[in-house]
Write the structure tokens for this entry.
Amino acid sequence: VQLQASGGGLAQPGGSLRLACASSGFDLADYRIGWFRQAPGKEREAVSCINADGTTYYGDAVKGRFTIARNKDKNTVVLQMNLLKPEDSAVYYCATDLGGKICVPTSGSTWYGEPKKYPYWGQGTQVTVSS
């Protein structure tokens, strides 16, 4: 089981980046997939999660700016990040637990993913938002 995150880089405030999460050893489409991020000196933070059926959830810090989606043709999960802010700068990771199809825990459209419950991680991709 392997995950690979890609697409990070440098963006200006207000700009956009698109991350992708690819898998090997299993079909991403069958499981919930989460994105987390970690900035220096901070705890790993839940960013977004997508159910196997395509239902999406977001952390409060990114709601309205980020969009998660499945690209079934490429067996990837993409995270479109718009209206980027300097505080979005972090290493971004995709993760799964191969444990189910539904993102938990959630409240409405907000996801409160707990990193410790995800055993499978991509290597991370750096996102830097700076002018």
Q: What stands out?
A: The chain has no helices and 13 strands. The longest strand covers residues 17-24. The CA atoms of residues 1 and 25 lie 5 Å apart.
